[in-house]
Amino acid sequence: MLPLCGCGFAPMYGGGAGESVSQKLDLVDVSNIPERTGQMLRLSLETQLHAAGAPAAELYALNVNYSIGVGGIGVQQDTATTRNRFTATANWTLSPIGNPGAPLTSGTAATEDAANIIDQQYFALTLETDTVNQQLADQIAAQITAQVAAYFKSHPNA
Length: 158
What we know:
Blueprint lengths: L1 H5 L11 H8 L2 E3 L4 H15 L10 E13 L10 E14 L8 E12 L5 H33 L4
Parallel strand pairs: 1-2
Antiparallel strand pairs: 2-3, 3-4
């Protein structure tokens, strides 16, 4: 660990200035995101942003537009699909609460996952799709959290 100190390495979330980043993340309110997949993303964001639990006060609003596209990638000769690719995209904006017209920063997060659909009964396919949707939400939330943390790290007085 000692050689990392000389190269300018500093932890993002902990120690020194990193503590203020974690404290700033606790001040972010995640706005409602429509549909069930949006609810999954919102819960994942709240879990990752609010490491110390629910915030006592909120100074920033995080607005997210979230969509998931599904396309068949395992197509047989009889046109039956055997595998689906899920592509999730989120565009987000961080603004001061009460002033959404003056965003502090914004960004995009994207990820992909896939699921087999060969001869699955409806409940099994639904369960697998829910699992994939949760994995997508967790990955998107991690990207957004890292991007927001990077903003707070580079703008400590925001």
